[in-house]
Specification:
By secondary structure, the chain is α/β, with parallel strands linked by helices. It is built from five helices and five strands; from the N terminus they run βααβαβαββα.
Length: 149
C-alpha cells in the first residue's frame, strides 16, 4: 500500500507553545499520532522542516515513491514559495493543503495561498483536528482516483 505523506512547514515544530490562542496546545507529536490513527493500515510518512529546500525534497520523495497522496501544511511557505508550488505541480495524486487556523480570517498577508493553486482541496480553521479530517478526506480522494484508473 502506497504511503500518505504529511508534510509540515516552518515553525510547526513549535505547536503547543507557539501562539496557543491561534494554534492551540496540541503538539506536533500529538498531530502525528492523530494522522497515524486516522490512516489505519495505510503507512504515513510524517515530516516537518523549517527549510524550504527540505520541503521541496519531501515532495520529490513523494513523487518518486510514489505516494498515494500528500497533505501539506506549508505554514509561511504557503504565501511565499514558488519552489514548493512548482514541486507540488509535479505530483500526480491528490493534494490537500491544510492550515490549523482560518487563514482567510487573519491578516491580509495570509490571504493569498500559492499552494491553493495546485491543491485538490483546502482545509483551514479546524485546529489540529483538521489533520484527522484531512486524512479521512484524502483517503476518499485516493479511492476515487483508483476507481477512475
Amino acid at each position: 500500500m502506497s504511503p500518505l505523506y504529511v508534510i509540515n512547514g516552518p515553525n510547526l515544530n513549535r505547536l503547543g507553545k507557539r501562539e496557543p490562542e491561534i494554534y492551540g496546545y496540541t503538539t506536533l507529536a500529538e498531530v502525528e499520532a492523530m494522522c497515524r490513527g486516522a490512516a489505519g493500515a495505510r503507512p504515513v510518512v510524517f515530516q516537518q522542516s523549517n527549510f524550504e529546500g527540505e520541503i521541496v525534497n519531501l515532495v520529490h520523495q513523494a513523487i518518486d515513491l510514489p505516494a498515494a497522496g500528500i497533505i501539506i501544511n506549508p505554514a509561511a511557505l504557503t504565501f511565499t514559495s514558488i519552489a514548493v508550488l512548482d514541486a507540488l505541480k509535479m505530483f500526480p495524486g491528490p493534494i490537500i493543503e491544510l492550515h490549523i487556523s482560518n487563514i482567510h480570517k487573519r491578516e491580509a498577508i495570509y490571504h493569498n495561498s500559492l499552494v491553493s493553486k495546485v491543491a485538490t482541496a483546502v482545509i483551514a480553521g479546524l485546529g489540529p483536528e483538521g489533520y484527522g479530517v484531512a486524512v479521512q478526506a484524502i483517503e476518499g480522494l485516493i479511492r476515487k482516483a483508483v476507481i477512475k484508473a
